[in-house]
Amino acid sequence: MENILVIGAGFMGTGIAQVAAQNGYRVYLQDSNAGAVDKALANIRWSTGKLESKGHLKDPAQAVQERIRAAKDLAVASKCNWVIEAVYEDEKLKKDLFRELENICPAETILASNTSSIRITRLAADAQHPERMVGLHFFGPVPLMLLVEVIKGEKTSAAVFQKSVDFILSLNKYPVKVMQDIPGFIMNRISGTAFREALNLVEEGIATVQDVDTGMKYGYGWTLGPFEMADYAGLDVYQRVGQAFKAMGVESYAPTSTLIDKMVQAGRLGKKAGKGFYDYMPDGAKTPFDTTQLT
Ligand SMILES: NC(=O)c1ccc[n+]([C@@H]2O[C@H](COP(=O)([O-])OP(=O)(O)OC[C@H]3O[C@@H](n4cnc5c(N)ncnc54)[C@H](O)[C@@H]3O)[C@@H](O)[C@H]2O)c1
């Protein structure tokens, strides 16, 4: 059984750990924030139980859960075939983490980042072995979304890239190969551009959040409108991604805006906070938030 260490037990790390365990990998989950891993394990118990009850799991939920263990620090990386980081979208944080991992992992361990926007080449800039670093950009919620972008850094070896594509196939996901390491890769360039325009329309008072979402769902067949999608991903996450795009000088793709900043400041972080562009009720219903209250 191959071992995987997932670092960062937030929205994405939790999902990545679950999907890897569902597909037979032994998973270690680590987070610097006390309590985050326990919360993640509880979410995984809930999610795998639900998938099992619908007949969507190959193995019993309990067996899947038992494949995931909490790791108190990074030492366990010494026996892992894969390390996938899903910590905050912060270039320095990720680079420091990879530097530390290089001192722990054997040469054959593949080091992957789930970054939404930062070029893998930048994350690998100070690495001793940049050829083993790759981007694995999952989409959330990971247990439900079938796409993963596999990003080839300038120095990622062909062998590591191919192994990464095969790894994603082993998780029963569709790999999309990103052959040139550009900020935002493929999908977030497209969705970031659409979201920036959606924000402009709302900030200028031309349309409401709900009307933009309705339009994109019923006019273009999107499953979720751009604001619903932002609430799912987390507005704090969007804010950090926007800052990362800005730092790379490609602001045109970035969902930065004063409205996002104000939403985050007001604690409107999206679905996880029970409030974002919509207010979420315990029964699953949601009502749109009047963003003019913050402008
Ligand atoms: N939210 C999305 O829809 C989405 C989609 C694709 C990619 N991403 C990317 O995935 C990454 C994580 O996003 P998320 O939405 O899961 O964020 P999140 O805020 O839900 O989780 C991040 C976790 O990382 C932990 N963390 C921070 N620094 C750490 C460190 N040094 N060591 C260990 N743990 C640390 C935090 O405590 C937190 O639990 C980001 O790079 C983000 O851009 C997010």
Features:
2 domains; 295 residues; globular; two-stranded antiparallel sheet; 10 strands; binds nicotinamide-adenine-dinucleotide; 11 helices; single chain; eight-stranded mixed sheet; N-(1-d-carboxylethyl)-l-norvaline Dehydrogenase, domain 2; Rossmann fold; alpha/beta
Distance from first to last alpha carbon: 53 Å
Number of self-contained structural domains: 2
Strand ordering within the main sheet: 3-2-1-4-5-6-7-8
Structural class: alpha/beta
Strand fraction: 5-15%
List the helices and strands and how they pair.
Layout: E1 3-7, H1 11-22, E2 26-30, H2 36-53, H3 61-66, E3 68-70, E4 82-85, H4 91-102, E5 110-113, H5 120-123, E6 133-138, E7 147-151, H6 158-170, E8 174-178, H7 187-203, H8 209-220, H9 226-233, H10 235-247, H11 258-265, E9 278-280, E10 286-288
Parallel strand pairs: 1-2, 1-4, 2-3, 4-5, 5-6, 7-8
Antiparallel strand pairs: 6-7, 9-10
Helix pairs in contact: 1-2, 10-11
Bound molecules: nicotinamide-adenine-dinucleotide.
Nicotinamide-adenine-dinucleotide binds next to helix 1, helix 4, strand 6 and helix 10.
